[in-house]
Amino acid sequence: MSKMRYFLLLTVFMVFKATAAGSMVATDKVAVHLSKAITVLKAQGIQTVVLPTVVPAPTANAHYFIYAELKPNRVDYVLSFDNTEKCEGAHYCNAGSLSTEIQGNPLIYFDNQNQEITEKIIMKKGHAVYYTPSHAMGDFWPGRVEWRCGPTLYTLSWALPAGDEKAALLKMVDSMWDSACL
Q: Could you read off the pLDDT of 42-72 as tens digits, one per residue?
């Protein structure tokens, strides 16, 4: 294959990847087992299940498999958005997650040179969210946004290309803000 042809194919692939990664879709259009996950949590006493109304368009599949898990304290939960049906939130096949923690506080992260990498961002009505970009430190940690509404800490984490992650995470937070922060 000629160099020019290879370059053109590479360019088309990169544009397609950037377009796919940057697009957001309605959660209910790409989430398999969503109502089942919500039903499981409600059956275990969770009154309100909050989730983003938009998520990044899936690239590997046409959908995400939703897995719900109640934390050991039985008041907090984790919703995993997985790339495979049997993933159940495992790191290697998980696209993203949303978790809650009663009386939790956002964490400030530092790199291996002890430089703060978490950024405070002011959202609606003056509320602060804390964005931490994806980073490698002993393992790879996807980008995350944490914020507190009332007694509940919300942590939204998603594996995204570095150039898209901050904007995409903030769009997801914005899409769930009114239901999370009544």
A: 998 898 899 999 999 997 668 999 999 998 8
φ/ψ (deg, to 5) at 123: -105, -155
Tell me: the pLDDT tens digits for 80-121? 999 999 998 888 899 999 999 999 999 999 988 899 999 999
CA distances from 90 to 6, 61, 94, 144, 166 (A): 36, 17, 6, 17, 23
Quote the CA–CA distance of 66 and 143 in Å, as a whole number.
Answer: 19
What sign for the dihedral angle of Cα 86, 140, 169, 71? positive
pTM, two decimals, is 0.83
Tell me the two tokens of residue 147: 């914020």
Judge residue 33's burial from the number of C-beta atoms within 10 Å of its C-beta, 0-12 exposed, 13-18 middle, 19 or more buried: middle
Q: What backbone torsions phi and psi does residue 62 show, to the nearest 5 degrees?
A: -90, 5
Could you tell me the two tokens for 176? Answer: 């769930």
Residue 30: left if φ>0, alpha if ψ -120 to 50, beta else—which one? alpha
The length of the chain in residues reads: 182
**Residue 147: beta bridge partners?**
129, 154
